[in-house]
Write a structure and sequence with these properties.
21% strand; five-stranded mixed β-sheet; 192 residues; Calcineurin-like_PHP; Metallo-depent_PP-like; four-stranded mixed β-sheet; alpha/beta; Metallophosphoesterase; hydrolase activity
Length: 192
């Protein structure tokens, strides 16, 4: 079933789906309510790489509510099913609301530390959960999430699902479904 989006988003998805370039998909701070949408994007766009920059179940604030760990484990299990696709390389950076041993249990060799740089089709991607973890790294693209901060050569996965096409280096953003910020626990964006 195709994703139902406004016309301008459909055009971006058509472009992403039809290109022969390598596609890197970047997500961050994902509440469970966004998992289906993420799965549909993966199915439609078929990225070769997916990078998650932390807070895998962002509707569960594990840092503040450790008693919610059983719910968190169930959510991470669901996300692992969505993100594990044959032929797709995955990188996962644990965030402040994640339990690193649980993340490693479900994503094993895909887990990388904040500040890791990976090279994809000759381009360098700095991976971190916060902008501070990538801001000073020598990279073509700095991928992060955690808050709404924007930095030079940065792609913030809180603001939307980012796609980078390689080798051209063109970047596109697809907004998360309505209500995603509410599910993350953000009541509203102040000043935006």
């Amino acid at each position: 079933m195709p994703i139902r989006l406004p016309l301008f988003r459909k055009k971006v998805l058509e472009l992403l789906s039809s290109t022969d370039e390598t596609k890197v998909m970047h997500i961050s701070d994902t509440p469970e309510s966004a998992y289906r949408f993420i799965g549909e994007l993966i199915e439609e766009v078929r990225p070769e790489y997916v990078i998650h920059t932390g807070d895998l179940a962002d509707n569960i604030k594990l840092e503040r509510r450790p008693d919610m760990k059983p719910l968190y484990i169930g959510a991470v299990r669901k996300l692992a099913r969505v993100l594990k696709n044959p032929g797709m390389e995955l990188y996962v950076v644990p965030g402040n609301e994640d339990d690193p041993p649980v993340v490693r249990e479900f994503f094993r060799e895909s887990v990388v530390e904040p500040g890791t740089i990976v090279e994809i089709v000759g381009r360098r991607f700095a991976l971190g959960h916060t902008w501070r973890e990538v801001a000073n790294l020598d990279a073509d693209f700095r991928l992060y999430g955690h808050n709404f901060k924007l930095i030079d050569r940065g792609l913030n996965g809180v603001l939307g699902v980012n796609f980078v096409l390689l080798p051209s280096g063109k970047a596109y953003r697809v907004k998360y479904p309505g209500g995603t910020d509410f599910e993350r626990g953000y009541k509203m964006w102040r000043g935006l």
